[in-house]
């Protein structure tokens, strides 16, 4: 009889080991899919960051700032410039 118990224990361990392998493989696939999604999101964010930096550098040019100051704020260059030096 003890032989049957050992056989049953061994069979139970083999089945539980197989189920554990299946579970771990499934979790691994889920995590890999999440990793790919996160990498795609990261790539999109990097592209967006590049676009924003390009837009920022375009908006910060002297000609663009001057043009917006003239149109939006109605600013103009002074007619006469007088330099005063303090002692």
Explained architecture:
The protein has 87 residues and is mainly α. The protein has a domain at 29-69. 79% of the residues lie in helices and 0% in strands. It is built from 2 helices and no strands. The chain has helices at 2-59, 62-72.
Q: What string, H for helix and E for strand, traces the elements in order? A: HH
Mean pLDDT figure: 93
| Shape annotation | rod-shaped
Low-pLDDT stretches are none
Task: Fill in the keyword field for this structure.
87 residues, mainly alpha, rod-shaped
Topology, element by element:
Layout lengths: L1 H58 L2 H11 L15
Quick summary:
The protein is an all-alpha fold and 87 residues long. The protein contains 2 helices and no strands.
């Amino acid at each position: 009889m003890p032989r049957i118990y050992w056989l049953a224990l061994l069979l139970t361990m083999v089945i539980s080991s197989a189920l554990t392998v299946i579970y771990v493989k499934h979790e691994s696939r889920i995590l890999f899919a999440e990793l790919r999604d996160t990498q795609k999101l990261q790539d999109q964010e990097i592209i967006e960051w590049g676009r924003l930096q390009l837009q920022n550098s375009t908006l910060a040019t002297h000609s663009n700032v001057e043009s917006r100051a003239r149109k939006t704020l109605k600013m103009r260059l002074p007619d006469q410039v007088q330099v005063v030096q303090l002692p």
